[in-house]
Amino acid sequence: MTDGLLPTPGLVRARYAAVPAGVHPELLSPGYASTAARAPLRPPVDLPQRLTEITGPLLGEGRLSARDADLTAQHEVEPVGQRILVQGQVRDSDGRAVPHTLVEIWQANAAGRYRHLGDQWPAPLDPGFSGVGRTVTDAEGRYRFTTVRPGAYPWGNHHNAWRPAHIHFSLFGRAFTQRLVTQMYFPDDPLFGQDPIYAAVPEQARERLVSRFSLEQTQPSWALAYEFDLVLRGTDATPFEEQDGQDEA
Amino acid sequence: MTGLTPSQTVGPFLSIALRWPDGPYVVPEGTPGAVWLRGRVLDGAGVAVTDALVETWQADPAGRFDHPDDPRGATAPAVEGFRGFGRSETLDGEFAVLTLKPGRVPDGQGGLQAPHLDVSVFARGLLDRVVTRVCFADEAAANAQDAVLQSLPPASRETLLAHAAADGYRFDVVLQGEGETVFFRV
Questions:
Q1: What is the pLDDT of residues B72-117, one digit of tens each?
Q2: What is the CATH number of the domain that holds B142?
Q3: Residue B164: CB atoms within 10 Å
Q4: A34 contacts B110? CB cut-off 8 A
Q5: For residues B135 and B113, what is the distance between their CA atoms, to the nearest angstrom?
Q6: What is the pLDDT of residues B103-112, one digit of tens each?
Q7: Alpha carbon of B166: minimum distance to chain A alpha carbons (Å)
Q8: Chain B residue with minimum CA distance to A117
Q9: Has residue A152 got a pLDDT over 90?
Q10: Which of the following is catalytic: A114, A143, A185, A198?
């Protein structure tokens, strides 16, 4: 018990590079009405990266059960809709793969309806589809889901508001600092222009949320393929060793 | 260097995927000394948010992490079944995680941090998670030595303190406005 209590000078160094401007949405984004009462008004305080921040839950195979990565095979009947593969690589901003990390997804069915009590718009539920998937990246940081393409759905943000088709992603990486929840979109969605959630992302970063159609990965007579890579915060340790400790000063 | 993937809101339907039956259990039920950390997530109108997700991450009671990036070496938890990670929705108006108070963790500058949990809050209307820390009001001596707490004005510091309650501790997150919780950029 006691060794953890001994102060050890120089034990901690900043490990993860700061997030540059122009990546994440502003929390207060007036076009997205729900931000008005929920976005903090004060600027965040810088927290030096110490042991709690550079570690994190390493959740893996133990969180999975059979067919978690195949959303079309979780019920006795298959879901309706366009069968698709969604696959890609999780890496950090230094280009290193993030292996063995939990990826959780959830989505609406092909008609645009979530299996959630709070979603009551008049589109059908699908007895063959829960819309929930989990997997763990492999040694190269790669993941793959089989699912159906989600539909768009209306919401109350503004008159005639529709969410572009999307799949929610939740990732842990290997540190508290790397935690990310985001959404994957589909190429050339005509609904992008009126969607305040997509538009809240700085313009130069928006395309990173749009998957790529891949004919090469498409499986003949079976499923269309979309590729979506995710990039988590990297370390700044390699080229700039000298500067590592600056955040602790 | 490739561009980071931007964050997006978790949306209103997160519970279909992110609710785990064992989510709130940082330690198994029945663990000696376990406490419930409970609280509300309040919006700018003082209304409890019922579609938020609160996640916690912490050291074990010995101040250690079972993680290879802990330079002291990954250490099997001092307590059987200790996961370090908790996850709870606020469907009933409160989050709740069953945990053990963490030990003190070195601050890398020769001192010790106060016992703390790192906290992420996700919700509809939050385009990125917000991050805060839970410290403990009944750890006055340790808190007085904690560089992060001491760097804050007293009123701000108070927003990071959990207070003793019947079966553990209470800690409300105020997203916005009067009494707004201190949020961190990590």
A1: 989 898 899 999 999 999 999 999 999 999 999 999 889 999 999 9
A2: 2.60.130.10
A3: 12
A4: no
A5: 10
A6: 999 998 899 9
A7: 27
A8: B13
A9: yes
A10: A114
A14-39+50-243 CATH: 2.60.130.10
Best residue in A55, A71, A143, A167 for a mutation probing chain B (most B CBs within 10 Å):
A55
Give the total number of structural domains in chain B. 1
- Catalytic residue of the set A32, A153, A185, A198: A153
DSSP state at residue B32: T
Question: Which residues lie below 8 Å from residue A51, measured CB to CB, with a gap of 6+?
Answer: A11, A12, B59, B65, B70, B105, B106, B108
pLDDT bin (cut points 50, 70, 90) of residue A240 is very low
Q: Is residue B56 included in any domain, yes or no?
A: yes
Q: State if pTM tops 0.90.
A: yes
Residue A198 designated active-site: no
A19 touches chain B (CB under 8 A): yes
The reply to whether B69 falls in a domain is yes
Domain extent for B23: 15-174
Share of chain B above pLDDT 90, in %: 94
CB distance from A131 to chain B under 8 Å?
Answer: yes
Q: What's the token pair of residue B95?
A: 């989050």
Interface test with B, best of A47, A201, A204, A240 (most B CBs within 10 A): A47
CB proximity list for B51: less than 8 A, separation 6 or greater: A118, B12, B14, B15, B89, B90, B91, B123, B124
